[in-house]
Structure formats: structure tokens, C-alpha cells
Model the fold of this input.
Amino acid sequence: MTRLSRRTLLAVALPAMTPMLARAQSAVPDTADYPNRPVTFVVPFAPAGSTDILARLLGQKLEQQFGKPFVVENRPGAGTILATNFVAKSPADGYTIMMAVSSLAIDATLYKTLPYDPAKELALVALIASVPFVLVVNPSLAVNSIDDLIKLAKERPLSYGSGGIGSFHHLAAALFTSMTGIKATHVPYRGTAPALDDLLGGYIQFMFSDLGPALPLITAGKLRALAITTKQRFTTLPDVPPLDEAGVPGFDVAAWQGVVAPAQTPAPIFGKLNTQLNAIVSTDEIRARLTNLGMIPVGKGSPEELTHFLQSEILRWRTVVEAAGIARSE
Done:
């Protein structure tokens, strides 16, 4: 090939290669100045719920720390699966993250098929808070303790409510009935609020509820709290014992709220988000806000420790789901 022909070939080829080179460079996330543009912060529920409130609070603090917008985007539907699949399939560049809840681990066993693999396609960036649940009954029920409830359940049929099949309310109750040897009929509802309404009306006898919606009803005397699901007592209910102390030794479970991202997100970006989120949760302001939402602040754990935590949660709830024979096919 002559010098002229080589020059001619390069003159033709270089302009054609330039867009390809640009695309190749842009495909590699720039971690040094992350974030250099807005970050989408997905919430798998409708606005105004506790997860949405928490995401907006964290997003505001992250924006102050990084100097770039963290834009909350609500994507409700299919029990968090729509939003989770969207995030799992998003580019692993740190610009799409999600406020996740413990159903992320539960769904891995609850559903026969999922459009994503939570253990392989998603990673927990930061564990923000644990969410203790409280076992509540209608005050008209002649029950003042866990022993009373167990005794009554062995004398006559009882029913309990939940926020839906496979919800944390459901699984906590399934674990409780399994560990105590009682039988009770599960009545699923479309969310916590309608289940609590029927508990207040006396249509069901007990329920495991997250603290946020149950706490005002407990303090107003409309519901009676028998025990909480964690070994750690909750500050706003100091006289309510853990189930572990109240007659069910070894009972210690909590839902959780955490931030997740696509699993292949570069380690430096994971590190930046993990450090900032842990620091945010350690502040007195955020810890007080979390307590008011019925949550126990966590805000600790390296990305490696959180990977182990998520895997252990998947295994823990797989045992409960399979033992209770719970499954959803849709």
C-alpha cells in the first residue's frame, strides 16, 4: 500500500471511528467526579408513604453533600417489582439508585419467577434503618399478654390481618404461629391501613403492624400492643416487651429500608454513596426523623458487609416462605 493510499484510508476511516470511540469512552462510568449530573432516586411506592418520605429526606441530604440533584421518581406497581426491575436493568453507572425495602429479599423466594435476580443484579449500597413490627390486638379482646393470646388461640379460632400475601406482616405472623404452635387464619388486605381498620372494627383479632401507622392508634388506646418483633426495645414504646422476652424465645426479625443500585456499579461510586449515606444517618437530625417514622437508625456497614447481609436475608426469608407454603405466581 502506498503512502498516499494509506493517508487516503485514514482520512476516510478516522471520521467514521470517532463516534465509535466516543461511545466506548462514554460507556465507562467516570468515577472521579461522580456525580456530575442529576441522579435518579427511584421509590417503588406511591408518594407520601414512609419509604417515599425517607427517600426525599436522604435525597435532599445527598444533594447538599454532592452538589448535584437527587431526583425522586415514584414507580409503584406489582409489589415493588416494576421499580426494582427498572433499576436492575439500568446502566450500572451510579445515576440510578433505589430506596428498597425487605421485600427485595422476600420476593426472591415468594415469586416463582422474577424478571431480575436480586442476588446477582442488585447490590445494597447502604442499610438505612431497621423497621420493628408490633403485635397488636383490639382492646376488646380479653388478651393482655402473649401468653394470653397463645392460650386463646388454642381455645378458639383466631384470624390475623396483613398488608397482603407475602408481606412482612404476613411472614412475621407465619413465623409467630410456627414458633408458638398455634393456628390462625390469614386475612390479606391491600395494604396496612385497611387491615388496621378491620382490626379496629373487630373483624380480625390480631396483626403484626409496622410501627408508623400503628403507633398513633396505640397511644390513643384504640389498639393494645403486646410485643415488638426485635430484641431491641423501641424508644417510643419502652414498656412493650420484645417477643423474645414475652414468651417466644429467639424471635427477632425486622423489616428494613436500604439504598440499592445495579450490582456492576463501579466500586468507587459504591464507596462514595456508602460513606455519605452512613454519615447522613449518623446525624442527630436524621436519627430523630427515623425514630418518628417508627424506624431504628442503622447507617453502618461496608459494601462487602451489606452484600453478606442481603444474601443472609434472602436465605432467612426463604426458610419462612417455604415452611409456610406461601407462593405467588404473578
Q: What stands out?
A: The two ends are 63 Å apart (CA to CA). The domain at 39-131+254-324 is CATH 3.40.190.150 (D-Maltodextrin-Binding Protein; domain 2). Residues 31 and 122 are 19 Å apart (CA to CA). DSSP finds 13 helices and eleven strands in the chain.
